[in-house]
Amino acid sequence: MPSVRDRGHSKRTGAATLPSDGRANNLSLVRRTLHADGAMSRAELSRTLGLTRVTVSDLVSDLLDRGHVVELGQSGEVRPGKPAILVDINRQGLQVIGVDLSGETALRAAVLDLDGNILERLERPVGNATGQAATGQAVVEQVLELVAETAARATAPLLGIGVGTPGIVSGDGVVLTAPNLGWSEVPVRELLEQHTGLPTLVSNDADAAVHADHTFGGGCDDEILIKIGRGVGSGVIVGGRRARGAHSAAGEIGHVTVGTDPGTLCVCGRTGCLETWMSVPSLERALAVAAAGDDPKAATAVVYQEAGERLAIALAPVVGVLDLAEVVLSGPRHLLGGPLLDAVQRTLLARLLHQDPQPVTVRLAEDPQDIVLRGAAVMVLWNQLGVA
What's the rounded Cα separation, in Å, for the pair 364 and 212? Predict the structure, then answer.
């Protein structure tokens, strides 16, 4: 991970840095340092950030007025002079709403604190009065109602709303396409901001998930997270920043053709897409067929081996070109762990330039059930506080 100071400065091309920009960066540095390292005195902040004590004292006063940091009382450290007062990010006094629209059967939302802990959670089935899956405008109305009810459960001021959704999402929060929800050109960010009055960030669900892994799950600065559910998507972190791509579609690997054999017909109308091997429904169907055969154990091993190999075939060029250090699989652990994980690791290493130590590791994500909710909250923390 880069140092706090490194992460706090960004390059700007063709524009002078205004004094207000420098102050905003320094305020973010203080918030980010306290969030990551915990409570410390103003003197400790000064040493950590390389700023004068006068500057740090002024910044802390500003953040106290905004309610972004709080004083915790005297430090227990024994030293000459006046006892130091500890300050910390306002972990209990500010909250965030996270929304996960990627579930097969339910929409989920939660109130979270600044450490990503879920304080309240709500869930609503994606369906209509006849029991059929709702799509289009019906889902939009369900999302608005769910978020409003979740906001009512907050017990502290809300910084904003983060949404993780299937599909391709533009930089201004418009869901360009999400076939599973029946959405096309839906301005989710604008609708939620009008409905709640809260700042809102909208991202693809796999992109939200990689934010959560990077911030709360111990992820590194160069990783790809593969989110496996009804479909297959991924989020990519390069140099500590999420890659968006020219069309806001970086990480859309589910419909990449893997292999030269025909493969199974995909819902997109083509054959051989990665999702026909790696999505949860595809894996479950293949395992059911294997279990009904003459040698279930051997057939099951083949299913996991083939699925892991196909995923590694799709990932190898990405990992090699971007020099990624970690591949993280997020989804049902009973499907992704063990033989499938081993197949991904083995095949991936076989297709990359040999290095010692090995160039990439493959692991399972922590807490896959809530990873999108927590990643949606991270987006708000970064947008509102500069914390990541």
Answer: 13
Residues 278-286 have a mean pLDDT of 92
Q: Is 229 exposed, middle or buried (0-12, 13-18, 19+ CB in 10 A)?
A: buried
CA atoms of 228 and 211, how far apart (whole Å): 16
Please state which architecture CATH assigns to domain 218-365.
2-Layer Sandwich (3.30)
Q: List the structure tokens of 111.
A: 């109130």
Do residues 206 and 213 make contact, with C-beta atoms less than 8 angstroms apart? no
Residue ranges of the chain that CATH labels 3.30.420.40: 95-211+372-385, 218-365
Span 123-142, average pLDDT? 76
Q: How confident is the model at residue 313 (pLDDT cuts 50, 70, 90)?
A: very high
The CATH superfamily label for domain 95-211+372-385 reads ATPase, nucleotide binding domain (3.30.420.40)
Entry field: residues in the chain: 388
Residue 205 CA to residue 230 CA, distance in Å, equals 12
Q: Are 316 and 351 in contact (CB under 8 A)?
A: yes
Residue with tokens 């593969």: 226
For 4-89, CATH number out of 1.10.10.10, 2.40.50.140, 3.40.718.10, 3.30.70.660 equals: 1.10.10.10
Structure tokens at 29: 């540095």
Residues 26 and 385: beta-carbon distance below 8 Å: no
Q: pLDDT confidence of 105, banded at 50, 70, 90?
A: confident
pLDDT tens digits for range 4-13 = 333 333 333 3
**What is the CA 147 to chain-centroid distance, rounded?**
19
Tens of pLDDT, residues 238-264: 998 888 888 778 888 888 888 767 778
Residue 33 has pLDDT above 70, yes or no: yes
pTM for the full predicted model: 0.83
**Which value, in Å, is the radius of gyration of the alpha carbons in the chain?**
23
DSSP 3-state assignment of 372? helix
The confidence score (pLDDT) of residue 15 equals 40
- Decide if 279 contacts 228 (C-beta within 8 A): yes
- Cβ contacts of residue 64 below 8 Å, gap of 6+? 70, 71, 87
Query: Counting Cβ atoms within 10 Å, is residue 19 exposed (0-12), middle (13-18) or buried (19+)?
Result: exposed
